[in-house]
Amino acid sequence: MSRHHHHHHEGCQRRDAAQLLEQCLQRAKAAGLRRTAALHEVLALLLEACQPLTLADLSADPRLAALADRSTVYRLLVKLEQHALVRRVGLHDRAAYYHIHLPGEHHDYLICEGCGRIERLEQSCPVEALEQTLSAQSGFTNLKHDLTFYGLCPHCSSGSSQPCCDLVH
Ligand SMILES: [Zn+2]
Ligand SMILES: [Zn+2]
User: Fold this and answer.
1) End-to-end distance of the chain based on CA atoms, in angstroms?
2) Residues 42-87: pLDDT tens digits?
3) Is 58 in contact with 73 (CB distance < 8 Å)?
4) Is 97 helix (H, G, I), strand (E, B) or coil?
5) pTM
6) 37 C-alpha to center of ligand 1: Å?
7) Does 17-157 carry CATH code 3.90.380.10?
């Protein structure tokens, strides 16, 4: 399971990425993280990506590979996750994906247990109404959730022995 290139499709690019990056860097600074070139690049790559990225995706990116080795990138991701700048989704460490966590931005995911590919649910969040009901019933405010569906992608459920291709839309 390796995904060598960043996958982009129309309409998923964040507008004002430069401004978002600056906000993330400010949040990182407030959390006590040193503003290194590698930190800057990890955040920039995650902001530019429209899908969560693996450690391998990130550390193989030429822009980041020039600045930091894989274990440094991993340690950065752990710190960013601790401070809620980054969230991790996936089955376990080996198939973990990281995505940037922006206030007000929320995505749910589908993950294939066969090949590990991940897809963002394009429909609006299926549990938003449930969240509002829970909030009203429990008195909890600022509810958030992580929602990940696991299953087999069309390729894996067809039983093909061909290696699963990268996500191609
Ligand atoms: Zn699959
Ligand atoms: Zn959701």
Assistant:
1) 18
2) 999 999 987 899 999 999 999 999 999 999 999 999 999 999 999 9
3) yes
4) strand
5) 0.77
6) 35
7) no
